[in-house]
Amino acid sequence: MPTPSRAGRHTVAMPPATAQPDTTHLLYLHGFRSSPGSTKARLVAERVQRAHPGVTWWCPQLPPSPAAAMALVREGTAAWPAEHSAVIGSSLGGFYARHLGLARAWKRALLNPAVHPARDLARHIGEQTAWHDPEQRFFFEPAFVDELRQLETEMDRMAAGAQIHPGLQFALIARGDEVLDWREMQDFCAGGQLTVLPGSDHAITDFPEHIDALMDFLRLAG
Question: Least enclosed by CB within 10 Å: which of 18, 99, 113, 168?
C-alpha cells in the first residue's frame, strides 16, 4: 500500500532490496521537443559535475526519429558496464529509458514517462519547434509513429512476466501532469520505487525538491 507523506505525496512501499552497485555511467534522455538544455537535465548535470566528477555523464540531443534515437544511445553506451550504468528519462525520454533499462538490466529513473507515445504523438505529425529554442525546427514524420509502435511492442515483450527489482527502477510522476495521464504512468511504473506527487506538472517544476531522492536511488560513485 502507498505510504502517505507530506502534502499528500505517497511512495509505494517496497520490500527490502539488496544494495545495488554504485553508478559510474549515467545517461539522461530528454523528452519530445526538448533538449539537453531542459531544466531537469541541467540540474542533474550540475549535481553530477559538482559532486561526482568521476561519473561518466552523457545527455545527447536525440533525433526526432525514435529508431534513430535508440540507435544513437545503444551505440553510444555499447561499452558501458551494465551493473554500473543508469539511465534517467523524462516524458518520451522516460519511455526510451524504460526500454533501454529492461533490455540491459540497468537502473532507470522515469520522470513523468510517456506510456503510449505512438498514440499520443500521432496528432503531432508535421513541423515542430524545440521548446528551448523556437528557431530550431524539425519534421515529425508519420513513419516515426510506426517506429514508436515497434518499440512499444518490443517493450511489452520484454516486460511480460518480468519481475522488476525494486533497486532497479525509480519513478516520479505528477497527478497535475497536464500532458500525460498519471494513472497510466502509475501502472507503467509498477514494480519499482514509485513516488506520486499530488500536484506539480508535466515539467515537474518542483524538481529541485526531489533531486535528492533521485540521487539516493542512483548511488553515484565518488
Answer: 18
Q: How long is the chain?
A: 222
- Nearest-angstrom CA–CA distance, 28 and 38: 11
> How many CB atoms neighbour CB 138 within 10 A?
13
| Domain count along the chain | 1
Name the pLDDT band for 15 (thresholds 50, 70, 90).
very low
Q: Which one, of 103, 199, 48, 122, lies nearest residue 95 by Cα?
A: 103
One-letter amino acid at 170 equals: F
Neighbours of 54 (CB within 10 A): 9
Full domain range(s) for residue 75: 2-16+23-218
* CATH number, position 50: 3.40.50.1820
pTM of the full structure: 0.89
